[in-house]
């Protein structure tokens, strides 16, 4: 889609508020400043979260984190810890956190429509007692991200209902995507068989820790 | 290879400070039999598999009992059981396995540290029922933290010594060793410090110990080798950065696994030829290997697969 040299119209914050109306009392009241037993219950069953961080200039990143349910540890009602498992070593989140400690988390539980949002301040730790709680298959992470919780609340499930995210039939969408190898070949103009790249990724996915 | 069993969590009760006891009733009739010293895997709803010693009565085929201490450094097993597991839900458990069997002996000394009491409870009961002289020294930080202490006192009287180490100090193992009958066997389960002291005090051929955490160990760098699967005639390369268990799984051999750190024994395989590099904490017999941690000194290791 193009806009003939113009950008889509920008709506002012005041106009946005006017169009959405005021939030209900119930929506504002659900925000808590700590991890209560229900939030803890949610985190203990969540195998996946997205982590949003930003650098000092406001450039934002959002990255996926996942492991067995409860991989994010509730250290106490104001503190979470998230393991840093082997990844692409770009360390975008770490770099951002060093400049700007704001962090936003969205936890998901497969099959559950509601999600959990946790916002707060982050720093990086190598505290042995924290890392020990993250040991998997005899390996423990080198680092973890500590989150000092400022806000926590359940997010209603309409987005997940509309997206049919947990409907098994939705997984047919994946079949419509080119493979990761085909994408790499196309994006980087490589002269290799995409199947070889696909095989490489399968090997990478075998070594998770 | 290891069929699982369905149970219903009939009861979760507090057994001591930070200890709960679970009663797991067979959901489809009698459960698999077991001998003192056996443990089962609990397949927790958070995908974790954790091993706990059976501490009930082997004659009760309808239910298993386990007791679980909340580990302050929980990775999600004991924390889940304490905080989130609910009575009435179903729980998949493994067949009982026994890495800590009770050998026949004319006399027994049982040494328990904290939650290490669990495998020793049925041992003490079995030894007593067989008319063997058997005594238990049961150490814990304080009386409040020690499950089953009252029952033990009332059932076995002065054959049980409860030692609250914060007030009384640690039991004098050397004195126990000196008083030990010539053919008595010693069974010890407890924290690493107690096991180390027991290993330094009692003759190795008379001490049977079970640990519930892997010991920190140093090995040379892992080297690649080949696993020869004798029954299927296939050879599986095991690269240096992959475990034998993972290599076999990825090659299509459904070897089951539990702890994946050499403690539980659920991945046990039979070695037909080669020189295994044992790295487990169970003490693999010469013809067995636990492929989750152990590797091979020889270039090829032949397995009964």
Automatic annotation (TrEMBL), chain A:
SUPFAM superfamilies: FMN-binding split barrel
Region (Disordered): 1-26
Biased composition (Basic and acidic residues): 16-26
Segments forming domain Pyridoxamine 5'-phosphate oxidase N-terminal: 37-156
Family matches, as InterPro entries: Pyridox_Oxase_FMN-dep, Pyridox_Oxase_N, Split_barrel_FMN-bd
Gene3D superfamilies per UniProt: Electron Transport, Fmn-binding Protein, Chain A
Protein name stated in the entry: Flavin-nucleotide-binding protein
UniProtKB/TrEMBL annotation, chain B:
Cofactors that this protein relies on: FAD
Entries under SUPFAM superfamilies matching the protein: 2Fe-2S ferredoxin-like, Ferredoxin reductase-like, C-terminal NADP-linked domain, Riboflavin synthase domain-like
Residue span, 2Fe-2S ferredoxin-type domain: 226-305
Classification via InterPro entries: 2Fe-2S_ferredoxin-like_sf, 2Fe-2S_ferredoxin-type, 2Fe2S_fd_BS, Beta-grasp_dom_sf, FAD-bd_FR_type, FNR_nucleotide-bd, MRET, OxRdtase_FAD/NAD-bd
Chain ranges of the FAD-binding FR-type domain: 2-103
Any Pfam family matching the protein: Fer2
UniProt keywords, alphabetically: 2Fe-2S, Flavoprotein, Iron, Iron-sulfur, Metal-binding, Oxidoreductase
PANTHER family linked: CARNITINE MONOOXYGENASE REDUCTASE SUBUNIT, NADH OXIDOREDUCTASE HCR
Protein name, as recorded: Phthalate 4,5-dioxygenase
Species this protein is from: Streptomyces varsoviensis
């Amino acid at each position: 889609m193009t806009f003939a040299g113009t950008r889509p119209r920008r709506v002012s914050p005041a106009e946005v508020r006017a169009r959405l109306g005021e939030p209900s009392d119930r929506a504002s009241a659900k925000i808590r400043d700590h991890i209560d037993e229900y939030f803890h219950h949610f985190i203990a069953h969540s195998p996946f979260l997205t982590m949003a961080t930003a650098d000092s200039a406001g450039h934002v990143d959002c990255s996926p984190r996942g492991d067995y349910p409860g991989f994010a540890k509730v250290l106490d009602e104001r503190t979470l810890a998230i393991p840093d498992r082997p990844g692409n070593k770009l360390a975008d989140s770490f770099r951002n956190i060093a400049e700007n400690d704001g962090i936003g988390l969205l936890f998901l539980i497969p099959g559950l429509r509601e999600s959990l949002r946790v916002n707060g301040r982050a720093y990086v730790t190598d505290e042995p007692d924290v890392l020990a709680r993250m040991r998997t298959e005899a390996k423990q992470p080198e680092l973890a991200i500590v989150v000092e919780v400022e806000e926590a609340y359940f997010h209603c499930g309409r987005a997940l209902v509309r997206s049919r995210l947990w409907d098994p039939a939705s997984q047919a969408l994946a079949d419509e995507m080119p493979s990761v190898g085909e994408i790499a070949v196309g994006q980087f103009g490589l002269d290799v068989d995409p199947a070889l790249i696909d095989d490489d990724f399968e090997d990478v996915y075998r070594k998770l820790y | 290879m290891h069929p699982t069993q369905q149970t219903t969590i009939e009861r979760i009760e507090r057994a001591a400070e930070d200890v709960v006891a679970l009663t797991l009733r067979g959901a489809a009739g009698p459960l698999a039999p077991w001998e003192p010293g056996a443990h089962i895997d609990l397949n927790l709803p958070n995908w974790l598999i954790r091993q706990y010693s059976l501490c009930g009565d082997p004659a009760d085929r309808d239910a298993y009992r386990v007791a679980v201490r909340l580990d302050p450094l929980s990775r999600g097993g004991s924390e889940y059981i304490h905080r989130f597991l609910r009575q009435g839900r179903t729980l998949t458990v493994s067949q009982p396995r026994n890495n800590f069997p009770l050998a026949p002996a004319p006399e027994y000394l049982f040494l328990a540290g904290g939650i290490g009491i669990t495998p020793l409870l049925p041992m003490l009961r079995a030894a007593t029922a067989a008319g063997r002289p058997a005594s238990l020294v049961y150490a814990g930080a304080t009386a409040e933290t020690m499950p089953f202490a009252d029952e033990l006192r009332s059932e076995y009287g002065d054959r049980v010594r409860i030692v609250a180490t914060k007030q009384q100090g640690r039991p004098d193992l050397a004195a126990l060793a000196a008083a030990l009958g010539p053919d008595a066997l010693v069974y010890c389960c407890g924290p690493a410090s107690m096991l180390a002291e027991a290993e330094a005090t009692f003759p190795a051929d008379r001490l049977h110990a079970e640990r519930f955490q892997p010991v920190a160990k140093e090995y040379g760098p892992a080297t690649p080798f080949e696993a020869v699967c004798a029954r299927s005639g296939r050879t599986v390369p095991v690269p240096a950065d992959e475990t034998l268990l993972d290599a076999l799984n990825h090659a299509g051999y459904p070897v089951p696994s539990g702890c994946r750190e050499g403690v539980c024994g659920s991945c046990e395989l039979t070695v037909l030829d080669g020189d295994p590099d044992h790295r487990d904490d169970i003490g693999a017999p010469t013809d067995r290997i636990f492929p989750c941690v152990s590797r091979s000194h020889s270039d090829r290791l032949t397995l009964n697969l």
